[in-house]
């Protein structure tokens, strides 16, 4: 069993009592018309209520980034003799009694700072400089936010992440740069945070040749970050951290594979595992661009949540390691009928004594048609085929967040997502979806614990869930084993085969007899710890019409809300237009001369035209 005792001694986090996203216009010190939005410890000013570009759904993104950068700073600054102090970390005593391996590792991670301090106090050999939040640390990290907008993220870094030397909040807009400076002054962080009005790529390109490059670069653009990746992999310091967000999920999920190839050098395909594939596409693009400069990436954490993906990677330099780049990437063969997939590595390496020999890979791993349903294959990729998380680092972040739950408003969700990340199979790319497996053969969907967990474990294979999809089945079992389990399940839950077409994937899969006998008895180890503890793994929709906000206007301000546009143009092709202001005014090709009747409605196109010739 699991026994958990948590003793809260004192809450020193002032932000825990403040509702994030709260808007106010009566705070002292505001200029006429200004509005303030609160998140975490930051209070962000906007010129007026009509120009508030703030998405509360992205608070999880910003909270997670603060947690990751804090642990990254803890690791990096410990080598420089600096100890960071996070408010609330010393005020909790967590005692966890568990025989589970995951629980033990989780407790060790949360108690690690205390053990290090005790060891150093006993030894007394090394003296540390302490760094607190809001203070400038001369040996600290240099941070760049390339696309800062209002500066909310950078202000939160300055107020919530200790051990920072400087923060550069850059934006190309003059209004945004002025707003960043105003917010830095309002939050009393001008000694750490500097506003910049320049092209983000140029800021990073100019830093690539300097001795002190940026230790942390955060890019959170509207849409694709591809225009900034080449500069980012050069401007980050040795062993530095890149934090990249992609919100162009329609492109990365297979709706426009040709566009995805032009941006990331990878062909996306429509599939059930598209969210993890999107993570592997951006990691492939980062590693490929870094390899040009004899650099390579080490993914620390990669998450797919809500409407975007977010990756945290460490960038290092090494010509010998770069030679392994081809073997880290793979092409993807996906069956359009049943969804079975196979990976084809781009290269291979073999050990020859003390040296490694690199050569092209041999393939393909599949025939022209799928062996299960005899449908054709789609070719996607290349994608990153190595692990997308550093479990040791993730456990440190998880231990810090769970040990200080009042630090972030989204701590419960961070704990749930990171717990699932630690449970994922590291060496198994992509996943199957249980709903899709059953719908392919038109049978009832089996219970998750009974089928995808217990049956695969009984068959001798490893299996886990995925944070990217609720009904994901991540396993090292080949597709043939999964279809054998489906065939065994269908025998006890038969479908009407007379209704199946002989050329359909369902008929061809069910017509073959299973080569193994499935055992659907539920095992004790089938239920993962994150599910047993009822953690917030997949949150429900946070609010109505949630999602990405409208793009900011080039001249300042924000565009109309997407919901307002939907209401305005709903049924526009069916309803007759009675208001002439809603009709387009364009030169009419049929009216080359001045119309004697002063008609400005084209009789051919039925569109309001301006007779201007």
UniProtKB/TrEMBL annotation:
Name of the protein in question: tRNA (guanine(26)-N(2))-dimethyltransferase
Record-level GO cellular component terms: nucleus
Gene3D superfamilies reported for this sequence: N2,N2-dimethylguanosine tRNA methyltransferase, C-terminal domain (3.30.56.70), Vaccinia Virus protein VP39 (3.40.50.150)
Pfam families: TRM
EC number(s) from the headed UniProt entry: 2.1.1.216
The family this protein is said to belong to: Belongs to the class I-like SAM-binding methyltransferase superfamily. Trm1 family.
InterPro entries: SAM-dependent_MTases_sf (IPR029063), Trm1 (IPR002905), tRNA_met_Trm1_C (IPR042296)
Catalyzed reactions: guanosine(26) in tRNA + 2 S-adenosyl-L-methionine = N(2)-dimethylguanosine(26) in tRNA + 2 S-adenosyl-L-homocysteine + 2 H(+)
SUPFAM superfamilies, alphabetized: S-adenosyl-L-methionine-dependent methyltransferases (SSF53335)
Classification lineage: Eukaryota, Metazoa, Chordata, Craniata, Vertebrata
């Amino acid at each position: 069993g699991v026994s958990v005792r948590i003793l809260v001694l004192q809450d020193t986090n002032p932000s825990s009592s403040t509702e994030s996203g709260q808007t106010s216009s009566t705070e002292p010190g505001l200029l006429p018309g200004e509005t303030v939005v609160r998140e975490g410890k930051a209070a962000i000013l906007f010129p007026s209520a009509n120009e508030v570009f703030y998405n509360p759904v992205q608070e999880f993104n910003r909270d997670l980034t603060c947690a990751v950068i804090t642990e990254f700073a803890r690791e990096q600054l410990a080598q420089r003799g600096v100890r960071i102090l996070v408010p609330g970390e010393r005020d909790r005593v967590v005692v966890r009694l568990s025989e589970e391996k995951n629980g033990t590792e989780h407790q060790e991670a949360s108690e690690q700072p205390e053990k290090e301090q005790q060891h150093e106090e006993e030894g007394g050999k090394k003296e540390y400089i302490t760094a607190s939040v809001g203070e400038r640390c001369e040996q600290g990290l240099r941070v760049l936010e390339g696309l800062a907008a209002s500066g909310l993220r950078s202000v939160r870094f300055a107020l919530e992440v200790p051990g920072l030397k400087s923060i550069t909040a850059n934006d190309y807009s003059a209004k945004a740069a002025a707003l960043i400076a105003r917010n830095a002054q309002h939050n009393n962080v001008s000694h750490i945070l500097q506003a910049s009005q320049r092209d983000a790529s140029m800021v990073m390109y100019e830093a690539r040749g300097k001795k002190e490059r940026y230790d942390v670069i955060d890019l959170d653009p509207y849409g694709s970050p591809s225009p900034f990746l080449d500069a980012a992999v050069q401007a980050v310091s040795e062993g530095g951290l890149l934090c990249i967000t992609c919100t162009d999920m329609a492109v990365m999920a297979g709706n426009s594979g040709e566009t995805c190839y032009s941006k990331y050098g990878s062909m996306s395909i429509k599939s059930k595992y598209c969210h993890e594939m999107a993570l592997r596409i951006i990691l492939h693009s980062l590693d490929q661009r870094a390899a040009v400069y004899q650099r390579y990436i080490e993914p620390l954490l990669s998450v797919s949540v809500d409407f975007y993906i977010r990756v945290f990677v460490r960038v290092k330099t090494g010509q010998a390691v770069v030679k392994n780049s081809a073997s880290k990437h793979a092409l993807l063969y996906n069956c359009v009928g049943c969804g079975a997939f196979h990976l084809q590595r781009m290269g291979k390496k073999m050990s020859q004594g003390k040296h490694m020999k690199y050569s092209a890979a041999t393939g393909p791993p599949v025939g022209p048609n799928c062996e299960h349903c005899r449908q054709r294959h789609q070719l996607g990729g290349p994608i990153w085929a190595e692990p997308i998380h550093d479990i040791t680092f993730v456990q440190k972040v998880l231990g810090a967040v769970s040990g200080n739950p009042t630090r972030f408003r989204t701590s419960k969700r961070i704990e749930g997502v990171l717990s699932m990340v630690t449970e994922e199979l590291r060496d198994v790319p992509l996943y199957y979806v249980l709903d899709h497996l059953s719908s392919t053969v038109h049978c009832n969907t089996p219970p998750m614990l009974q089928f995808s967990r217990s049956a695969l474990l009984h068959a001798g294979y490893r299996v886990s869930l995925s944070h990217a999809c609720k009904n994901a089945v991540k396993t090292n079992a080949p597709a043939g084993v999964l279809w054998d389990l489906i065939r065994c399940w269908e025998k006890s839950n038969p479908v009407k085969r007379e209704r199946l077409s002989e050329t359909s994937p369902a008929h061809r899969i069910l017509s073959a007899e299973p080569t193994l006998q499935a055992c659907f008895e539920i095992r004790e180890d089938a239920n993962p710890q994150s599910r047993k503890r009822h953690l917030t793994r997949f949150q429900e929709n946070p609010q109505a019409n949630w999602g990405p906000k409208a793009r900011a206007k080039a001249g300042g301000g924000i565009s109309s809300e997407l919901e307002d546009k939907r209401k305005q143009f709903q049924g526009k092709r069916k309803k007759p237009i009675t208001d002439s202001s809603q009709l387009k005014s364009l030169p009419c090709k049929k009216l080359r001369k001045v119309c004697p009747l002063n008609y400005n409605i084209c009789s051919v196109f039925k569109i309001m035209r301006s007779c201007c010739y």
